[in-house]
Amino acid sequence: MNVARHVLPVTIALTVIGLSSFGCGTSMTSIEMEPLEFQAVQTADGLRVETMDPERLFESGSNAFDAGDFVEASRLFGLVADRFPDSAQGEPALFNLGLSRLRGGRPGEAVTAFRRYIDSFPPEPQDVLPRLRLIEALLDSGEWADAEAEIKVAIDAPGLTPASRLELEAGLTRSLRKQNRLQEALDASARAREIHDSHLTDPSMRANYSAAMAAFESGEIWHDLFVSIKLVLPKDRMEKDLTDKAAMFMKAQAEYMRTVRIGNIYWSSKAGVRIGQLYEEFYADIMNAEIPPGLSNDDLALYRAELRRQARPMLVKAVDLYERNMEVCRKFGAREEWFTEMKTRLARLKSLLAELE
User: Fold this and answer.
1) DSSP characters over 280-323
2) Separation of alpha carbons 324 and 327, rounded Å
3) What are phi and psi of 25, to 5 degrees?
4) Which residue among 169, 230, 281, 319 is the one 20 to 30 A from 110 at the CA level?
């Protein structure tokens, strides 16, 4: 995302003296210009003097943002917003300050900047972009209730595009899940899915981040329910638990697979990890199920061997899913750091499979 740029005439810091000759006389005109401010900045290379001109600072902040230097971009946009709030660059600088903090991994500080922007420059009702970025910062900060409140304000804005409405429903899905309001979260995810599937010809829906996020969050709900079910005796209870656990497994896997099909590479890579994790966890739950009482040592050894034999295909499936997911995601440009967890899990499972040979 590029920040906004404004180009205005540079303020000149001097007094201009003009001499005019008409006939025998001489006249003098004095024009007072705005003074330039200077600031000394300590850098790794020594002291640097900066000109406190809002246009130049804004341009430098934009360049830093585009280069991915969000710390420097935040500093420069902050200078404009604080020192020159009434300049032409003051309003966009304050918004860009929030963006720089958000992209730089400082969502709590981004919340402060976006709230200040909305208070200082109240947007028109149809201009939801400032509130969308505030909501994003709130979600990244884990401020679930505040995010929900802002979403409910923004979702009533006139003229929302499908992409904006989808982003709001996806954010609502996440905030509600984190507040353990699971049915409401599933309802919000269903609305997000309807928006996405009803506008597939809209270019903004291609590999849409919010659509994939909403599907992933639904998968997380079913996944958490799957994990919560333990296999315990007596036999009738264990059979019911196994049936319920399998149902949650299938629902979670379906939502994760939908996430992958949407095609957003970030969420696809995360969903791929989760699908493999489902098989891995199912194996662990079967192996840790309560053991019937009264078994001799020999019978217990046979019982455990039979459990391993029946559960082993789940490990094989998990390994296959992890490897295929890494291959596909690399093909489509996923960042290598996204695979850290997957590589760790893959190495552990391969080691376990080798022990079961």
Assistant:
1) HHHHHHHHTSPPPTT--HHHHHHHHHHHHHHHHHHHHHHHHHHH
2) 5
3) -95, 160
4) 169
